[in-house]
């Protein structure tokens, strides 16, 4: 059957009109509402007075706050609020709704040290603890525009992994999330900072004043090593905040969204020639977590790159790099199994050795055309929870065949 030829001018006109209709429909579907987070810091009481205010023509119908721990007190709302155990269910109505509570800033570990702390002249905490995880029920197309405003004692300033839009007010970016909330580390008070643009990343190192913390040394170390991390992980956040503090803070490093905490007493390069700072930077880059038996993958990758990045930047020689790998393999023999809920010490050393073996095997199979970098980059792109089957799949794709270093036999030896 012969079909009539369509006039190309009419075809282009019809396509353009269809595109405009689609754009209009998409614009109509996008309905913004505003979230204003306010936190008033009260050092003398050890708390932050938090208010979450929603405004818009349409608001989420239900918000469930997951209150892990007992740090959230005196919660109340202008609308329906039901608190049961560690869940608070808030049901906004109308065009404006507000929730408020008192947040206890100090969080002490069993070791006696703190991973969140407020003192007379400074506070170090995480935004995703200040504002707990929130599950939002809202209609399709509803999107939030969020800001965090900090009210602090006179003379205090703040550093967050967000760009400051006005004095102590920060627009919150949270890609992929329709209900945005603050995340990552923050430091407030009488603080000093050093900053630079490194490999396209706006980088800041901040710490309390008068604690002898070497901000400039840390920034120089980042200048040498961060470009090599960004080369492996091109999706690295475009802003990085390194918060540092002394005692009684946690004696180590802890990563967060676009940020990390590092105790000021930790060496930039440890005695075993790995770097705790690089280890945490890799966590920032990948954004992955274990599935209950796969924390060794998360920690093994971070520890491998804590050594590998130093080799690439010239921080350690090839000879000392090989010696460090041998030392990790020796230490790793003390670990009876990889499949623990949490990977530490000998288990992480063993995991790093396995990752190094995977790298060698991929390079050998591809004549150095692929490496563990391809696997790590893919994990970072997929993000979220990782598993052994996922690692095996990505390694096999890079090598062009199954990788024996990840076989049941290799992992059980």
From TrEMBL:
InterPro entries for this protein: Peptidase_M4/M1_CTD_sf (IPR027268)
Protein name: Peptidase M61 catalytic domain-containing protein
